[in-house]
Amino acid sequence: MNKLDIPSEKVKRSKAKRIGILALKILAGFVICLILLLVSLHFISRIDDPILTAQEKQLSYTRTPISGGWASGNNWIRKNDAGLYEMYIEGNAYERGYVNGLLSQELINKQEDFFVETLNKLLPATIYQYFIKYVVGYFNKDLDKYVSEEYKKEIYGVSRFASDKHNYIAPPYQRILNYHGAHDIGHAMQNMNFVGCTSFGVWGDKTEDGSIIIGRNFDFYVGDKFAQDKIVLFVRPDSGYKMMLVTWGGMIGVVSGMNEHGLTVTLNAAPSEIPTGTATPISLVARQVLQYARTTQEAYNIIEKSHVFVSEMLLVGSAQDHKVVSIEKTPTKTSMYQTDASSSRILCTNHFQSNTFKSDSLNINHQKNNPTQKRFERLNELLDNTSKFTYESVADVLRDQKGLHNTNIGLTNEAAINQLIAHHAIIFMPEQRMVWVSSNPYNLGKFKAYNLTDVFQGNPLDQQKQLINIESKTIAADSFLTTSSYTNVVFYKKIAEQITQKDFVLNSAIEKQFIESNKEYFNTYLLLATYYQQKRDYTKSLQYAQMAQSKYLASDKERKAIEEVIQKCKENL
């Protein structure tokens, strides 16, 4: 080869330099585009504050301490002996929001801290957090267009008392408004088991007096801390109907509630496509139902007209109709599912049942890949085994931790009705205007009883000093809390969270205790298999994966997760 054909070192360096400069220019261009995109998203996604009247702008309440809480005029909040916060508010939309925020500001700030803490664990990289922040901001840029002026003003009133600590995410009003879509966003994160609820209704020959009893577990899980401070909220609005709902600091939407006419609403997540645009958060649709409907048809009319961005089932009970229905809603269709006249029950887990949706491929795949069908079958089995229900026996069903035929499927299993993750459980007897709300932990603490007629007929100023729950109707705490099994599950959940963290080191003593704490649950072994796979100990990983495979599995998703670990182990052995 001619020497002239051999590039000199100088030429090589020059070429490398040009390539390097070109790469830097491309990178710089990408960074500039990204910055411009984020800046544009920031301005595009700004949501304006609602317009207040001159009178509303001048609103300024103060609060005074009462036993266990605070009061402001007729409005009050206090913590009861079971650890539940009870709160009463009244007035127009902005007044309700303002006094709600005033009385519960510590709970609002605490709740947001817990929520952000959980998000930080899921999204530890700062750049990724900011990317998600702007994507969600853009996604929800028109959110306020799908929220009524009434609810925007109420949310704005609440946001006046939100902390400035998280202003790096968004201003308080934008944050609180967006948090109302958290249940909906949970649909897009179903693999993280954020949303998966169980509810049912019985009546006629299935109850002692023939009246309706409804029970539900609200399994919206954002960590145990998030569920610590539940609020039983009683609202006397200036328009619509008086109502109660179970909520948390900063939340005016409804996930579980009943109004003065005995109309009940509970939310159950349904199989849904990943949202592609914003619409009304489902909790605000449920709030509208509770505030403005008396019958199942009126509820259906409100839901049918609403524009939502995820699919949902709303279990609606009506004292006036003496029936319970599941109103199934997607972004494009609405259907009312009810059992035939000979049936005295309705069940609802996390799949559609109406003719409109039950044969949909998304619904069928959801039933195969998630334990919703197994929970449904177990719920049916428990209802078959109880001849006449009372509110106490409904609580027993909600606390059940077994699989079909009383099989031990391990603690916290998604196939169980009680997965030990519930934010709350609630029981309604709508015709009697009675409601029971569970206290911590999960649905295992006491269920406190309330009569809505008595609460709303009472004098709010007197109630600031008196009990409003009915002590004689309290459902006792689950005896499971006093067993070694409960101690085990607390340990199991602690290690199950830690073992997924990169810097966690598992010693043999903890490993043995971890297995013993929940040895019938497949995920105990799958977590260990994944841990050892990451440590490149494929022999031990394979051993644990095969043990996971031998345990009770309720869905294709669980089987596939185990098979993937086994396949990777075999490839590396």
Largest sheet: 11 strands, mixed
* Biggest sheet: strand arrangement: 1-2-3-4-7-8-9-10-11-12-13
The count of β-strands is 17
Note the beta-strand portion: 15-25%
| Computed CA radius of gyration, to the nearest angstrom | 26 Å
> What is the structural class?
alpha+beta
Mean pLDDT: 89
Helix content: 40-55%
The CA-CA distance between the termini, in Å, is: 48 Å
Assign an overall shape.
globular
Total helical segments: 19
Which segments are poorly predicted (pLDDT under 50) over 5 or more consecutive residues? 1-6, 37-41, 190-194
List the SSEs and their pairings:
Layout lengths: L8 H36 L9 H4 L6 E3 L2 E4 L2 E5 L5 E7 L1 H30 L3 H14 L9 H11 L12 H8 L2 H4 L12 E5 L10 E6 L12 E7 L5 E5 L8 E4 L3 E7 L12 H11 L3 H10 L6 E7 L4 E7 L4 E4 L7 E4 L12 H9 L2 H13 L6 H8 L25 E6 L4 E5 L8 E5 H6 L2 H4 L20 H15 L9 H10 L4 H13 L3 H12 L6 H17 L1
Parallel strand pairs: 4-7
Antiparallel strand pairs: 1-2, 2-3, 3-4, 5-6, 5-14, 6-15, 7-8, 8-9, 9-10, 10-11, 11-12, 12-13, 15-16, 16-17
Helix pairs in contact: 1-4, 3-5, 5-6, 8-9, 15-16, 17-18, 17-19, 18-19
